[in-house]
Automatic annotation (TrEMBL):
Location(s) in or outside the cell: Membrane
Transmembrane segments: 7-30
Pfam families xrefs: Tetraspanin
Provenance organism: Ranatra chinensis
Alphabetically ordered keywords of this record: Membrane, Transmembrane, Transmembrane helix
Protein name per UniProt: Uncharacterized protein
Length: 144
């Protein structure tokens, strides 16, 4: 009798856990913001602007460079975010840089740790018509 009870209790526990897991998965898919899983575009831009290139935030800088190199994009929503970022405003970047090198179209190397743009001069132009071929402009913002 004891073995039968333990087996029944085990199966019941598995079913309860499976149902709970399914309910939580559905809840996460339907309402991710309640679980802290949703990404707000404004928060993402603010995070990007306050952490890129800032001393003590090297891991964030490397992560952003990796994202921009791998997905061939620039900024969270566009490269113009860097003009009002701490990286630019606190003059942590070189004076002639409008966007990081990881925003630029890369050579064959495509290293996010040491980006080498094909044409750095065109990439740092202010007008989109001038930098379109040298800087990544497509938005790759993904939602969960």
């Amino acid at each position: 009798m004891l073995i039968y009870f333990d087996f029944f209790q085990y199966i019941f526990s598995l079913v309860v856990l499976l149902v709970a897991e399914c309910v939580l998965t559905l809840f996460a898919i339907i309402c991710p913001q309640y679980l802290g899983l949703a990404i707000d575009k404004d928060d993402l831009v603010t995070l990007w602007q306050r952490n890129y290139g800032v001393p003590g935030k090297e891991q964030m800088t490397v992560a952003i460079d990796l994202i921009q190199t791998k997905f061939e994009c620039c900024g969270a929503l566009s490269g113009t975010e860097y003009s009002i970022s701490w990286w630019n405003l606190k003059e942590l970047a070189a004076p002639n840089l409008l966007v990081p090198f990881s925003c630029c179209v890369q050579g064959e190397n495509k290293s996010y740790l040491d980006p080498s743009p094909l044409n750095n001069t065109l990439c740092q132009e202010k007008e989109m018509d001038n930098y379109r071929l040298a800087r990544h402009v497509e938005v790759r913002y993904l939602t969960l």
